[in-house]
Amino acid sequence: MKQTENLIVGLGIAGLNLCHQLEKAGKSFLVIDRCPENSSSLIAGGIYNPVALKRKLRSWRVDELFPTLITAYSEIDALLGVSTLQHPFPILKPIVSDDDLNEWKTAVKDERLVPYVNAVEESVPKGPFKQDVKAYVTIENAGFVRISKLIASYQNYLNQKGLLLQDEFYHHNINILDDGIEYQGIQADRIIFAEGRFASQNPYFSWLPMRATKGQMLTVRLPESVTPDRIYNQQFLLFPLEEKGLFRLGATYEWGQLDETPTEEATQELLTKVKKTLDVEIEVLDAQAAVRPTVIDRRPIIGQHPDHRPIWIFNGLGTKGIMLAPYFAKQLVEHIYEGAAIDPEVSLKRFGKHYANS
Ligand SMILES: Cc1cc2nc3c(=O)[nH]c(=O)nc-3n(C[C@H](O)[C@H](O)[C@H](O)COP(=O)(O)OP(=O)(O)OC[C@H]3O[C@@H](n4cnc5c(N)ncnc54)[C@H](O)[C@@H]3O)c2cc1C
Fold first, then answer.
1. Does residue 184 sit in the same domain as residue 280?
2. Single pTM value for the model
């Protein structure tokens, strides 16, 4: 029988950050993941932005989330010998309408935004912008993580240590004990599910009010006039890949067909949005789709199953997994081992009524 303190199901950005925090705390763990070619984390843009651009406000809890984000991804990069964290990497937000321009002029004076947004520049930014782009703002303290590379490198790292089982996890094979669980020859103090959108198929957590959203990203080739030194954000996100001339373009939001199949409709939606702002020829090289694990109140979910004490969850990272995962993985580990409080806004306990009614 293999022994471990923590059996983790799922090695997306949630599971990966959990492993990292457990390793830092000197705790043992083992991960099971089917290691798909496609998942929400594998295709994500990986972008983090301290400003909620639509509402022109600071992003939720950004002052707490940011330091852990930079520390965690820097540490993981150093551990793996890669450089997936691109920080700082500015976001350029073009401004098209007069209303938007006036709102931004007011917003940038708000002291809560001052550390994050530069003054509004009332000129056309450098690049192939359409004439109706009148002004822009830049968010300097943003960036992105080359997330598929990060996950692939972390899989290798765990494989070398014998800590990753590439397999399907079958929930009906769990044997719940008084002080832990057993699963196919593994004995663990607890099991932590970090299954992303597949939580809805987990019999212990299928009662959670998830509201998953499908999203599509494209890999595109663009002319040199689109400089690869910033993230362009205008109802779309466009940022450079490592290979010269190649960019990732995303992302769509769809609530109907929740699967991993890219569609021509979503591709056209993205291209139309870009062409409203940039005057460029776009060559589409690839399209990928996946489903974000979003919760109805758009907050993460962490905590212990109400009845089965050895069963835990770390999920609900929604559209902001990169920024949320490091901080809340750390909080979960500190809760388990040091009794630190779980933030009520992300605690599983907030859905107690859903469980009682299930
Ligand atoms: C198009 C798109 C663009 C996005 N862009 C961004 C962005 O720019 N910035 C940002 O912060 N976020 C972005 N997101 C959101 C982000 O991807 C998610 O918040 C994040 O990936 C969720 O991570 P997760 O680990 O919870 O889930 P997942 O990435 O889905 O990982 C879950 C893992 O669990 C495994 N698993 C589940 N069930 C089982 C089982 N029974 N057996 C074995 N393995 C199992 C799966 O194989 C998978 O590897 C984007 C999402 C999409 C779809």
1. no
2. 0.97
User: Which pairing describes strands 164-166 and 29-33: parallel, antiparallel, or unpaired?
Assistant: parallel
Parent domain of 305: 2-44+148-210+296-356
pLDDT at 298 exceeding the cut of 90: yes
Task: List the Cα angle 157/158/162 in 5-degree steps.
Answer: 125
Pick the last residue of a domain from 83, 107, 139.
139
* Residues 198 and 300 both lie in one domain: yes
Which of 30, 41, 346 for a ligand 1 pocket mutation test, highest count of atoms within 8 Å of Cβ?
A: 41
CA–centroid distance, residue 280 to ligand 1 (Å) = 31
- The answer, yes or no, to whether the previous bond of 88 is cis (omega within 30 of 0) is yes
Q: Whose CA is nearest to atom 34 of ligand 1?
A: 10
| Closest C-alpha to ligand 1, atom 35 | 10
Confidence of residue 119 (pLDDT cuts 50, 70, 90): confident
Judgement on whether residues 287 and 246 belong to the same structural domain of the protein: yes
Give the atom of ligand 1 at the shortest distance from the alpha carbon of 33.
Answer: 44
Instruction: State yes or no: cis peptide before 251, omega within 30 of 0.
Output: yes
pLDDT in tens, 27-47: 999 999 999 999 999 999 999
Number of domains in the chain: 3
Mutual angle of helices 147-161 and 13-24, in 10-degree steps: 50
Q: Are residues 314 and 191 in the same domain?
A: yes
